[in-house]
Design goal:
This protein is an alpha+beta fold. The chain is built from three helices and four strands; from the N terminus they run ααββαββ.
């Protein structure tokens, strides 16, 4: 009787947390969530309006690549109606991407550092400044 009860409790426990999914499934789910959050952040990051460089910012995004994370940046208008939502979505994306990286199978990473670009306003549109 005790074994049966313990067995039922174990199955109920597995069912309540989504079953006994593998770590590969957890990684894929985390990756899908990070990708969805990135798409949302990019969609909300309107490049206009702007009248000066001070009205432009750069969203920092993270693309999981196995145990590695690749940074990407997107200029956007800080005065657009969706600026705050874009910033919040980018913060969520970085958190979700970090989780995906932590769940990924071990891989080797090449070390590179990408410096975020500065943003400028050209023709009322925020753009990445060209390195000089």
């Amino acid at each position: 009787m005790i074994k049966t009860t313990l067995g039922v409790l174990a199955l109920a426990s597995l069912a309540s947390c989504g079953g006994g999914g593998s770590s590969t499934d957890d990684y894929q789910q985390a990756l899908d969530q990070a990708n969805a959050a990135q798409a949302q952040a990019v969609a909300l990051a309107a490049p206009s309006p702007c009248n000066a460089a001070q009205q432009c910012g750069v969203l920092s995004l993270t693309q999981p690549a196995g145990r590695c994370a690749v940074a990407s940046y997107r200029p956007y208008s800080l005065v657009s109606p969706t600026a705050d939502a874009a910033s919040a979505a980018a913060a969520d994306e970085r958190t979700l991407a970090g989780r995906a990286v932590s769940l990924s199978p071990p891989t080797a990473c090449s070390q590179s550092v990408q410096v975020p670009p500065s943003a400028i306003c050209v023709a009322n549109t925020c753009q990445a400044a060209q390195p000089q």
